[in-house]
Amino acid sequence: MDKSKTLSLLEIERELSASREAVFSALTQPEKMSQWFFGMDDGYSEAEVDLRIGGKYTVRMYLPNKELACAPHGEYLEIDPPQKLVFTWTAEGFVEHSVVTITLKESEKGTLLHLRHELPEEAVAEHRQGWIACSERLEAFTQSQQP
Amino acid sequence: MVNLEEDSTNRVFKALSDSTRRKILQHISREDATVTEIARPFDVSGPAISKHLKILEEARLITRFKNGTTRRFKLNTEPLSEAQLVIQRLTSFWMTRLAHLDTFLENETKSSKNNG
Predict the structure, then answer these.
(1) Interface residue A26 vs chain B (CB under 8 A)
(2) Is ipTM strictly over 0.90?
(3) A interface test, pick of B90, B98, B111 with most A CB neighbours within 10 Å
(4) In CA terms, which of A48, A87, B78, B100 is 20 to 30 Å from B7?
(5) Which residues make Cβ contacts (< 8 Å) with residue A46, sequence separation at least 6?
(6) Spans of all domains in chain B
(7) The pLDDT of residue A7
């Protein structure tokens, strides 16, 4: 079977009111990443980043009770500031070795962020055990925060 | 029970990962069909089509039934929602992260304006 076959593709766009440089910096500077990634109202996170091709990153996402909810990590495949960032994305039990491509385009408001998450066939198939551990823990917590 | 559900989701993913099988599903979703009808648009052998149908059946995306003496296949949409659920979860994960990124950037812009 062709392992490179894409299982699924997830695409999201969001307009951000900041320059592409500011967005790129927020996406790649660990002290900034830890603030937005999980650090708003639903917990806190710690980011480690080695920003170079082949360099690794980890974002540990903690619930307010200090329980580790999820720790997505991966490797940078393409770094082209301020327009493109490509990295692998693994979260144990969530998905493995999937690829996220973020492109930033100038827009009226500031920046149009396009996120494309490719899930190859084997990304989900063999690593479903912890899916619940990661995503449902986050989801359960998010729901408990809603009024 | 949970493991059973996970296995069936894996089968759905496997079944949906192939473009021929996705086309077969599209065909059957329009109308029930026999193996011959399903095979017609494809330039592949009978056994190859049978193999695709077997994978789709194992994923419970199609079911076979008898209409007189002919065997026909019909679509079963129930497992599809399981696969979509996984994508939906990941989508909501990213939507939340990007909403937070937006808030972070707005705050950052405000504070830099205040500072100078």
Answers:
(1) yes
(2) no
(3) B90
(4) A87
(5) A34, A59, A60, A62
(6) 2-115
(7) 58
Q: What is the residue range of A110's domain?
A: 6-141
Q: Which residues contact A60 (CB under 8 A, 6 or more apart)?
A: A45, A46, A47, A68, A71
Instruction: Classify domain B2-115 at the CATH topology level.
Output: Arc Repressor Mutant, subunit A (1.10.10)
Contacts of A31 in chain B (CB under 8 A): none
Flag whether A129 is in a domain. Answer: yes
Could you tell me if residue A146 is inside a domain?
A: no
- pLDDT class of A2 with cuts at 50, 70, 90: very low
Q: The domain that contains A82 carries what CATH number?
A: 3.30.530.20
Q: Is residue A147 part of a domain?
A: no
Distance from CA of A7 to the nearest CA of B (A): 5
Number of domains chain A contains: 1
CB-based contact A142 B96, cutoff 8 Å: yes
Compare all CA atoms of chain A with the CA of B98 and give the residue at the minimum distance.
Answer: A14
How wide is the angle at C-alpha B71 spanned by C-alphas B67 and B73, nearest 5°? 100
Question: Could you give phi then psi for residue B37, rounded to 5 degrees?
Answer: -65, -40
Q: Give B-chain residues touching A23 at CB under 8 angstroms.
A: 101, 105
- Residue A109 at interface with chain B, using a CB cutoff of 8 Å: no
Please tell me which of the candidates B2, B96, B105 has its beta carbon nearest to residue A16: B105
The amino acid present at B45, given as its one-letter code, is S
Task: Note the pLDDT tens digit of each residue in B45-68.
Answer: 888 999 999 999 998 989 999 988
A118 part of contact set with chain B, CB < 8 Å: no
Instruction: Please check the confidence at residue A81 and state whether its pLDDT lies above 90.
Output: yes
Residue A1 counted as domain residue:
no
Mean pLDDT of chain A: 80
Least confident of A29-38, A121-130, B61-70: A121-130
Q: Shortest CB distance from A35 goes to which of B6, B93, B104? A: B104
Amino acid at A43: G
Alpha-carbon span A103 to A113, nearest angstrom: 6
